[in-house]
């Protein structure tokens, strides 16, 4: 048993990535190093979050608004800067595209053979930071196509099948890193005493159905009728319970591990919804499909959506295949009546 425990403690993130990419050849080294840098970013952010309440300028707002028109919190800026610092000298990526930056950050002198771009939401759910509830970082890795001399990053405006890896870091009671490179979904728990992310769940599968529906019912009267039809259905039927934390990563992680469905629908005023495609809904959709679940806008798979701009938004219905299909059935029913 001791030997088994030691073996488990030795299954670190970088070893797991190399195992997954055995057939990839030299690219495997780059991707393993890249994932290791993401893990370093996660550790730096987790460390700051743990001490934020004890530091002068870690919590609260900066007074600025970001490209999304949202108030920027000090932790948003810190986490964004962490990813840039971690990758600046790494020689692993050419560009970083973030929710917190209007344009991507270019690192041309370090543009490697793989020509990777890191897309990320450095702190998702930052409204939870000041009340010590879970927040997360979401990331996706794509390969640059073309040389983007005008730095328009137009090659990023492609569908989610262009992602070669995706994942998130959940800063909760423990810090958990979840990723997939197309060979299943795997979770690692940070062992602070080792400073290593150790494999804790391998080949995670989303159950076909789950008891949770996760949505902000405060928007009930802003939605299309079809979403209200779905909510009325779950209210009337046993076996469903509502869970909503206001932070996407934690709400999705519950669905990934236990099944159910998370929704952030569009509203009549904002049919495209609130969540951003390239660094929120597409990475999570990649994971959901890798884990045997589904992710749709309500009418088409998220991974088929081609963004018209870097910060494009999509509605999101994600989780157990049966539960996503149930939501879609209410949407198609209303479309038939229209
Ligand atoms: P609402 C956080 O701001 C976020 O981007 C996601 O993490 C979360 O799921 C959603 O917005 C919460 O939005 O409108 O329910 O407060």
From TrEMBL:
UniProt remark on cofactor binding: Binds 2 magnesium ions per subunit.
Positions annotated to bind Mg(2+) 1: 99, 121, 123
Keywords linked to the UniProt accession: Calvin cycle, Carbohydrate metabolism, Cytoplasm, Hydrolase, Magnesium, Metal-binding
Pfam families: FBPase, FBPase_C
Annotated binding of substrate, by residue: 124-127, 216, 244, 274
EC primary class: hydrolase
Cofactor(s) of this protein: Mg(2+)
Binding-site residues, Mg(2+) 2: 121, 124, 280
Family under the similarity heading: Belongs to the FBPase class 1 family.
Protein name, entry field: Fructose-1,6-bisphosphatase class 1
Gene: fbp
């Amino acid at each position: 048993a001791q030997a088994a425990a030691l073996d488990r403690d030795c299954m670190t993130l970088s070893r797991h990535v190399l195992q997954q990419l055995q057939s990839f050849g030299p690219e495997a080294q780059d991707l393993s190093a890249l994932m290791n840098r993401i893990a370093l970013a996660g550790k730096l952010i987790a460390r700051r979050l743990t001490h934020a309440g004890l530091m002068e300028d870690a919590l609260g707002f900066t007074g600025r608004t970001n490209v999304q028109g949202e108030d920027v919190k000090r932790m948003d800026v810190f986490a964004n800067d962490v990813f840039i610092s971690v990758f600046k000298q790494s020689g692993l990526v050419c560009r970083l595209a973030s929710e917190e930056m209007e344009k991507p950050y270019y690192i041309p002198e370090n543009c490697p053979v793989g020509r990777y771009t890191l897309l990320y939401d450095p702190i998702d759910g930052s409204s939870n930071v000041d009340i010590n509830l879970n927040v997360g970082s979401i990331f996706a890795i794509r390969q640059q196509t073309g040389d983007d001399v005008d730095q328009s990053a137009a090659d990023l405006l492609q569908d989610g099948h262009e992602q070669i890896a995706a994942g998130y870091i959940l800063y909760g009671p423990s810090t958990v890193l979840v990723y997939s490179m197309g060979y299943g979904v795997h979770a690692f728990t940070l062992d602070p005493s080792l400073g290593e992310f150790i494999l804790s769940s391998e080949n995670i599968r989303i159950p076909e159905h789950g008891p949770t529906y996760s949505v902000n019912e405060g928007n009930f009267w802003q939605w299309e009728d079809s979403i209200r039809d779905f909510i009325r259905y779950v209210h009337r039927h046993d076996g469903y319970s509502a869970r909503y934390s206001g932070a996407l990563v934690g709400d999705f992680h519950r669905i990934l591990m236990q099944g159910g469905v998370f929704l952030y629908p569009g509203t009549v005023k904002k049919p495209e919804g609130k969540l951003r495609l390239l660094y929120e809904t597409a990475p999570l959709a990649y994971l959901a499909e890798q884990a045997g679940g589904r992710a749709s806008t309500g009418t088409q798979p998220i991974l088929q959506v081609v963004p018209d701009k870097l910060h494009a938004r999509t509605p999101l219905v994600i989780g157990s295949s049966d539960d996503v299909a149930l939501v879609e059935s209410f949407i198609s029913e209303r479309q038939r009546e229209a």
